[in-house]
Every structure is written in structure tokens, then in C-alpha cells.
Specification:
Layout: E1 6-16, E2 19-26, E3 32-33, E4 36-40, H1 42-53, E5 59-66, E6 71-79, H2 90-96, E7 100-104, H3 105-111, H4 114-134
Parallel strand pairs: 1-6
Antiparallel strand pairs: 1-2, 1-4, 2-3, 2-7, 5-6
Helix pairs in contact: 3-4
């Protein structure tokens, strides 16, 4: 894959009694990973991310370089109540798979590649600031 390739990740999160959870899926190698939405050139990836985001509130995370796969990763994070997602949503398709589960973020950080760890860390930082500001 050349350096002009990009990957879009969908970072779905929710708050449960154990705290912040994120959705991970198992890839073909039995590794846990954030779900891929699409791969390709930058314009294709951005278009698909924006299409999936629609009017939903989301957090656009900073791009991250994945040295292992030689591509840049872009991600949007969504707070998910999967029961309210439209049937045609790719996010709903991820959640309905038998290969995935919501995992407490601390455990998710231990299971992911370094580039995905950066995305999870940024999400935690953004949500911490939002919660702090709400409590002022």
C-alpha cells in the first residue's frame, strides 16, 4: 500500500456502569481493532466518513500514521445507542456482527495497535474536557 492510502475508522463509544466503553471487533488474525469503514484515497475516505456522520454529533479525531500498514488513519467518534441506529447504518452493521463487543476503554487501550491507542487516548481527553466543562 503506498503512502497515499488512507483508512477510515469508526470509533463508537457509550457510557455504562463500568465507565466509558468503546466498540472493538476481531479481525481475521483474532486481533482486536477499531472497525474499518473504508480504505482508499483521501477524498474517498473523507467522503465516506462525512456520509456516515450525516447530521449526527460526532468527534473528528486527529489523523494518525499507521507505520505497520503504511497509511494514515482518519476517525470519527460517535456516542452510540445502537438500538436507535437506522437499519442502513454501517455503524449498526458493525455492532450486529458476532466479531465485536463493547469493551471498557482501559482494556481497549491494552488490546489495540499503537496508532489506535492514540485515537482512544484523544477520545478520552476530549470527553474528559467536555464533562469537565459541563460540570462548571
Amino acid at each position: 500500500m503506498d503512502s497515499n492510502q488512507f483508512c477510515a475508522k469508526v470509533l463508537m463509544y457509550r457510557y455504562e456502569s463500568d465507565g466509558l466503553e468503546v466498540f472493538l471487533e476481531k479481525d481475521d488474525n483474532d486481533s482486536w481493532t477499531l472497525p474499518n469503514l473504508v480504505e482508499g484515497d483521501e477524498a474517498t475516505v473523507i467522503h465516506q466518513l462525512q456520509k456516515e456522520a450525516g447530521q449526527d454529533e460526532h468527534i473528528e479525531l486527529d489523523p494518525v500514521k499507521c507505520e505497520l500498514r503504511k497509511r494514515d488513519m482518519l476517525a470519527y467518534a460517535f456516542e452510540i445507542d445502537w438500538r436507535k441506529l437506522p437499519k442502513v447504518s454501517k455503524r449498526r452493521q458493525f455492532i450486529e456482527t458476532n466479531k465485536g463487543a463493547f469493551v471498557v476503554v482501559k482494556e481497549a487501550m491494552k488490546k489495540n495497535m499503537p496508532s489506535e491507542y492514540k485515537m482512544l487516548k484523544e477520545l478520552v481527553d476530549v470527553l474528559s474536557v467536555r464533562n469537565l466543562l459541563r460540570n462548571l
